[in-house]
Amino acid sequence: MRSKIAILAGMIGNKVVQMAGRKGTSLTGKIALAVKPDILNDFAKKCDKIALITGTNGKTTTNNLANHIFKGKDYDIVSNLNGSNMITGVTSSFIQNHRGHYNWGIFEVDEGSMPNVTKYLPSDYIIITNFFRDQLDRYGEVENTINLVQKSSKRHNSTLILDADSPISLYFQDSDQPKVYYSLKKNPFSKDSANVEESVFCPVCGHKLDYEYINYGNHGKFSCSKCGAKNHEADYVIDEVTFKNGGYEFTVKDKKESAKINLNLLGIYNVSNVLAAIALARENGFSYDLIKQQIENFEYKLGRMERISVNGCDVVLVLSKNPVGLSEVFSTIKFDEDKKSFMFILNDYAPDGKDISWIWDAYFKEIAATPNIDKFYCVGTRAEEVALRLKYADFPTSKIKIYHSKDQSDVVECVEEIVAENDKAYIIGTFTAMPEARKVLMKLKGEKA
Q1: What's the CATH fold of domain 304-445?
Q2: pTM (2 decimals)?
Q3: Does the annotation mark 235 as catalytic?
Q4: CATH dotted code for 2-296
Q5: 231-261: pLDDT as tens digits
Q6: Is 378 annotated as a binding residue?
């Protein structure tokens, strides 16, 4: 009875929020949890299987890719595709898509929320994408986050799907849980060394790791000369990566089969994200034919390398919130030889992380070396810090334009300007910035955000 009251209260709250013209992705769950704190227990019983996706970067992309692949079998799926990934957001997704039964529950979960979510929501699989320094004022150092996820993942003997290219996977190697590993082999975008010194020490003995190559962040082929630790053998591998039509063509292989697939998403890290989703699908009996079909018709609309054409300007929207993410965005864009302008909207609200010192750890030298940049717009509540960071990276000050935002919605003028004055533009923003920039673009297109 209490569960029904909680669901009804959440539904009413959701309706009120919608009538007010807001999305309210987590308020619905907040109301339901206030009535029945363990309501996720009840919801979990409606799912045949549950997969959780956690990590610093790539959660939302991997979640959306996995959902799209699984919908190829016409499954009833409940998920938080909008990226609301704390316990309130996970709970909201059940209420907003309320049914008596689901084939799958697939959820991205904020690393810090894993203890709360796994307490009530048992999972069959947990995908762990990566761990990087992110919102240090909230999480502290990476080891704290790893510890949270490590303890949470053991609650239900979930099968772990781990990136073998990440040294962090070694933290989980002694667990008795079933494990599946995936790996992205050396490719034309691999580097000889890391641009951001991100956890390059051995999790087993603390010695500095040696790398044969790095794909992004600290992910690559590593070994420890002191204790012998190295990459685990992968069950799923992506090889033969080439840049094609603004995305990537690659070959994915397991011990039985292989397939050539095209991914219409920029960023080599997204190739790792899609491999995590492929691993989950293959472990559950999906054919490569169906996986290929679903990936190749996948379109993304949440500001993660999203392409929007507005008034003759091709805009790419990119969420970035930590040093590795921003460095990899710059690294990806440097291959674009077209004339273009950039905008980086840096805010310091709670969802963004109030400590913005992380921009000094990002590799801005990459953007200084990128060809054919017309202007770089520094925007947001901390716009001046972006301009200063560019100056220290020897970016030409004559190309820098500063728009200080009074609040997170104060981006209309600068977004309209970058669209009006360019044929191509990249707009990079933190959590609170990206939705606001997208609203302006969609309004210019005459569409709803």
Answers
A1: Protein-Tyrosine Phosphatase; Chain A (3.90.190)
A2: 0.87
A3: no
A4: 3.40.1190.10
A5: 999 999 999 999 887 789 999 999 999 999 9
A6: no
